[in-house]
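Q: Predict the bound structure with FE2/S2 (inorganic) cluster.
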Amino acid sequence: MYSEKVMDHFSNPRNVGEIENPSGVGTVGNAKCGDIMRMYLDIDENKTITDVKFKTFGCGAAVATSSMATELVKGKTVDEALQVTNKAVMEALDGLPPVKVHCSLLAEEAIHAALWDYSQKNDITIDGLEKPVNDISEKEEEEEY
Ligand code: FES
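A: Predicted complex:
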């Protein structure tokens, strides 16, 4: 049911943990399944993400997608990181079962929330970045699955 890559990132997640005094931190949850994700970013003066860590209280697919998402945004600029969609994360993992697609949104939204925190703290505008929601299940209802 799960690809080898999903199993690998679930059993052996990359970048788990916390960053002290991060440049940006974001927490999002999904009230429907009760899962929560927190993402920490360190961003240098060139707006490049130099470090990223995550913590999750979530399902296996949430762990695997967050792990892959951290790998994809590390070393990228904040603008490039914004382009890392949940679809890109799923592709990098060789897909997810349809019922688990929503889990990948948690990772994408947590990155956006951390970028938002960074932009607010530094008075920076990141084009295309919207104010994050705390509960992504509100957003899901607007989208079709
Ligand atoms: Fe909630 Fe996967 S079931 S994030």
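A: The mean pLDDT is 93.
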